[in-house]
Amino acid sequence: xxxxxxxxxxxxxxxxxxxxxxxxxxxxxxxxxxxxxxxxxxxxxxxxxxxxxxxxxxxxxxxxxxxxxxxxxxxxxxxxxxxxxxxxxxxxxxxxxxxxxxxxxxxxxxxxxxxxxxxxxxxxxxxxxxxxxxxxxxxxxxxxxxxxxxxxxxxxxxxxxxxxxxxxxxxxxxxxxxxxxxxxxxxxxxxxxxxxxxxxxxxxxxxxxxxxxxxxxxxxxxxxxxxxxxxxxxxxxxxxxxxxxxxxxxxxxxxxxxxxxxxxxxxxxxxxxxxxxxxxxxxxxxxxxxxxxxxxxxxxxxxxxxxxxxxxxxxxxxxxxxxxxxxxxxxxxxxxxxxxxxxxxxxxxxxxxxxxxxxxxxxxxxxxxxxxxxxxxxxxxxxxxxxxxxxxxxxxxxxxxxxxxxxxxxxxxxxxxxxxxxxxxxxxxxxxxxxxxxxxxxxxxxxxxxxxxxxxxxxxxxxxxxxxxxxxxxxxxxxxxxxxxxxxxxxxxxxxxxxxxxxxxxxxxxxxxxxxxxxxxxxxxxxxxxx
Length: 531
Description:
This protein is α/β, with parallel strands linked by helices. Helix content is about 30%, strand content about 20%.
């Protein structure tokens, strides 16, 4: 049926025909959409209403078709599957009955409609920035019979607001927008507001972090809620604010990690985290659970209890949701065998990866290096030919080390680098000499660390360097060539994406510490071929 709603005008027309204007809070922007809406016949309206009453969301489905995933990603509009909505609402139904339910990024009101059916007297409040989405939310609420107790407001959830009176349930799917698209004013808001709670905030945080902080601002002790977001905040540095909020004023109670295999977000292969919280509470432990199949997400119960003291000490939480795996007999953690280091950050690849400007730089300062992950993937398990690799310019800190006849060519390179602003970048300004990249020694084994599959491991037989698109594995003790190659063979076959963390967009990332926790055969086993 959504295929018949092929334009924004027809979608707006359907929303008006279903009674969108009957829901309080109708804005001027929505009125304009209503004025320009395409007429919808009565029979089609009746079919839409019937589908909505059966629990469907034809308007939301149409919206997702009219606006591609790429377009909706700019505003963080990802619509939640009904099974997840039901599971979160089942959890809410087990809590004290709310006076109102608030969805801070209401979309097509999937959560509010479910709340309307669950809580017969609760006021239903949805906040939204997109006027077309607000129209859809109104239409779904009106068609479901909840118009008289619903209110949709076209407003930014972070804007100043009074605390809601009475017990409030906060529930929904806060928009996922990367920090690049958040303006400086709102980034200041995040830092300054977090400081009011004696917490530090990173300006690299995504928009979903802002919504948790805004919830703490709007909520009163005893209010409760459940949000579903991308799960990366559990581990990354910018997620520290949310981890602190969860253990502090938000009153976190539980976290369920939903693997990409369960498709928690239809438009993105990413790991999701469903949080539950009761504002002002301070439980002694938090329930953590991991779900790999959607059919296992009947509710939000279960999981293992982790004491809050353990969470306070951990900087990465997702690994705590894994079932404890015993180390196989004869195996050790990779970190016992090797240090894992990310490659060197040049600070300006376009400058320091040798180009025409570097033609007169002496060859001894131009180092063959892995500069693209695909170079490792193409190499197979042994990198034996470096002829196609690019070179990185790595000059000494002290230019007095140059021979007299080398100096003019280097000075020409540095002048060209300055003209391109290479000396002004953050990395360059924080080096002893802005021109000295400081490449690490060649690593015997190189590895990719971010892809849509498990890492690729390669024996670096030609001893090339690597920049920060790869990790280098440096043995802590002497390993023979047989041991190195057997280690590579095992790592290429025995590692799963589940050992890393999956980000929005489906990329799985292995930080050096996570790679060091992988179980691998001991040196004695590596002396023989690994079956």
